[in-house]
């Protein structure tokens, strides 16, 4: 299967005319009886060779990470007389292991991303590079301060180190994007920036206010996560608006941003309802979860993205299981829940396009003009 990006590349190279490309897309739409936009394509595996290379990449990164940890362990030995050396040793292992993984991931990306354009290995290498860059910076900061527990300012020092590390990783993601332009890179960079901003905010709040209770910290954390999720969602929509027919790499970038934003929005909402701690308030709480999921469904249909539905699915399973158990179906509560959810998802998938047309058709025209194009294809 050829991706939209590859078809566009063929047009740019003169191998395929613009009219031929449009005809090909129209033909595919007629075969599937739904628009390409509604399929929400993204490249993951183009052949088994992707999986083969991905396995080799994971093994290689694991090996260099272990070597880096050994180097850190040798350079910062543990002293039984100084407990702080235990922490410094751990941070040093994180720093050297992360540095070697980041360097190796970049080198491998030169071959498998820049030259071979392999999807799955490129995703793994990007995530490894950004994660390792974050770990390297965090390990460096931890190695410098030594024992965070024995530090009187540990409540603020560690969030500051996390914030700086997040910005460092975001810079690495930007360089990676400039070099390789892997669609998931933007989401990875946005995630590290979110980590940096949230960590900075927590450091400021904890440092200036009397916040000691764990539940207070979690409330602050999830509030900040929700705000960051909304910001990333808005940014994802900007990418989506710039490619309403989803024919370029911009649609792939939007896909990964939505995938990042969805759990950051969903989890704080259901945390506020008490689902994550198992103390959901009776029937009202369960109905609240289902109502929120219904709203998520409307939004998902309108923007033609399924990430919100997937991210919130586990909470609906919990709510429905509780309801079936509450009304006597104790032995079959989970089975009935799975049956209801599975049937609903399959029905939604089968009738996604016509349902979406109804929802989008009821929106103001100026808003419709910013949403992905969708129309039921005429049978071929």
Automatic annotation (TrEMBL):
UniProt keyword annotations, A-Z: Membrane, Transmembrane, Transmembrane helix
Tree of life domain: Bacteria
Coiled coil residues, start to end: none
Transmembrane segments: 51-71, 91-112, 124-145, 157-177, 184-208, 220-241, 253-274, 280-300, 307-324, 330-352
Keyword Kinase: no
Record bears the keyword Nucleus: no
Descriptive protein name: DUF2157 domain-containing protein
């Amino acid at each position: 299967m050829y991706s939209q990006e590859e078809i566009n590349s063929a047009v740019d190279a003169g191998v395929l005319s613009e009219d031929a490309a449009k005809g090909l897309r129209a033909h595919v739409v007629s075969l599937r009886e739904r628009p390409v936009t509604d399929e929400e394509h993204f490249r993951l595996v183009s052949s088994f060779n992707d999986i083969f290379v991905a396995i080799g990449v994971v093994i290689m990164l694991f090996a260099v990470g272990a070597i880096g940890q050994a180097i850190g362990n040798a350079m910062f030995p543990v002293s039984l007389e100084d407990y702080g050396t235990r922490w410094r040793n751990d941070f040093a292992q994180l720093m050297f292991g992360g540095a070697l993984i980041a360097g190796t991931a970049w080198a491998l990306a030169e071959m498998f991303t820049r030259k071979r354009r392999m999807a799955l290995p490129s995703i793994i290498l990007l995530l490894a590079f950004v994660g390792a860059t974050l770990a390297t910076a965090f390990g460096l900061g931890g190695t410098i301060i030594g024992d965070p527990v024995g530090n009187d300012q540990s409540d603020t020092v560690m969030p500051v180190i996390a914030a700086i590390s997040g910005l460092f990783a975001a810079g690495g993601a930007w360089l990676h994007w400039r070099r390789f332009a892997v669609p998931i890179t933007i989401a990875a960079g946005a995630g590290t920036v979110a980590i940096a901003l949230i960590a900075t905010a927590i450091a400021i709040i904890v440092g200036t206010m009397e916040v000691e209770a764990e539940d207070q910290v979690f409330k602050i954390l999830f509030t900040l996560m929700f705000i960051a999720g909304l910001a990333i969602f808005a940014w994802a929509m900007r990418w989506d608006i710039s490619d309403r027919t989803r024919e370029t790499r911009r649609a792939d970038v939007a896909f990964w941003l939505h995938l990042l934003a969805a759990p950051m929005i969903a989890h704080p909402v259901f945390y506020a309802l008490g689902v994550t701690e198992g103390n959901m308030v009776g029937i009202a709480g369960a109905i609240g979860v289902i109502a929120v999921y219904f709203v998520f469904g409307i939004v998902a249909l309108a923007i033609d993205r399924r990430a919100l539905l997937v991210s919130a699915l586990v909470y609906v399973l919990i709510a429905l299981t509780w309801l079936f158990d509450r009304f006597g179906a104790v032995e079959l509560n989970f089975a009935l829940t799975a049956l209801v959810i599975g049937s609903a998802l399959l029905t939604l998938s089968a009738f996604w396009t016509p349902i979406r047309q109804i929802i989008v058709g009821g929106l103001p025209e100026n808003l419709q003009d910013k949403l992905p194009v969708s129309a039921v294809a005429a049978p071929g």
